[in-house]
Backbone:
């Protein structure tokens, strides 16, 4: 619920939050690993793998994506993701050879595409229509325990945002059905969240499963966001192997989650 697929002309499948698809001011989505099945094999597109480890491939695929989205003249900003809480405001467009370290990117500028790569971690899109500003966050368990989403919301507020008007979307990630974690992770969760109990599920097999999305929703709630401002897509990367890369399942590929502000005149 809440999401919609669309295909690019080269056969890539994108996923987006349906309520933002009609928005004229925001462009967002997630490049999945699915390919349009009706294309003959010789026409199959380049793999939609956005792993940053192979920077030339990443840059080429990002360039292709921007061309297909008709935003080839935009700048693009992304970062080496290090599972901490650094969020960059108005990052300069980067080249893959010299990436800043950050797990969140935000901007009030138009024509700047912000991207994070994920495979089980939670991509979180942030949109403040009033300011206006957009952002994207990469939240794994480490970032979640340290409060990456709150850090991003704090920056937005410092820029003049009224958080009661901000909306966030939590994209495909490993969900509580599949995210078995060890005691080291649980201990960090207990320390960061005194109210952790609903987010750790104990199965009869004596394994513990973490609700990473739930913890991020809790973070947003702590910063005053109402339920109606928070949109979890509830898609599990581990369960849906043909749609999403999953680190836990052994995939080396990465999904790209992106967002940018369109200028008022476009669309
Ligand atoms: Zn699952």
Residues:
């Amino acid at each position: 619920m809440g999401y919609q697929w669309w295909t690019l002309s080269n056969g890539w499948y994108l996923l987006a939050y349906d309520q933002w698809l009609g928005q004229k001011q925001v462009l967002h989505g997630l490049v999945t690993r699915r390919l349009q099945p009706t294309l003959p094999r010789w026409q199959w597109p380049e793999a939609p793998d956005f792993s940053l480890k192979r920077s030339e491939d990443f840059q080429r695929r990002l360039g292709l994506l921007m061309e297909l989205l008709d935003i080839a003249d935009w700048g693009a900003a992304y970062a080496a993701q290090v599972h901490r809480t650094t969020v960059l405001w108005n990052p300069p467009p980067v080249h893959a050879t010299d990436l800043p370290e950050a797990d969140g990117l935000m901007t009030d500028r138009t024509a700047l595409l912000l991207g994070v790569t994920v495979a089980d971690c939670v991509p979180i899109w942030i949109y403040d229509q009033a300011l206006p500003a957009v952002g994207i966050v990469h939240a794994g368990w480490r970032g979640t325990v340290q409060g990456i989403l709150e850090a991003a919301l704090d920056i937005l507020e410092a820029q003049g945002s009224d958080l009661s008007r901000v909306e966030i979307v939590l994209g495909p990630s490993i969900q509580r059905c599949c995210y078995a974690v060890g005691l080291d992770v649980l201990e960090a969760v207990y320390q960061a969240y005194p109210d952790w109990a609903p987010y750790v599920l104990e199965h009869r097999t004596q394994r513990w499963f973490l609700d990473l999305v739930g913890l991020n929703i809790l973070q947003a709630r702590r910063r005053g966001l109402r339920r109606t401002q928070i949109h979890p897509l509830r898609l599990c990367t581990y369960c849906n192997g043909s749609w999403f890369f999953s680190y836990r399942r052994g995939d080396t590929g990465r999904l790209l989650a992106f967002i940018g502000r369109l200028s008022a005149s476009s669309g």
User: Anything to note?
Assistant: The mean pLDDT is 93. The pocket of zinc ion is lined by residues 175, 177-178, 236, 238-239 (CB under 6 Å). The radius of gyration is 18 Å. The longest helix spans residues 55-68.
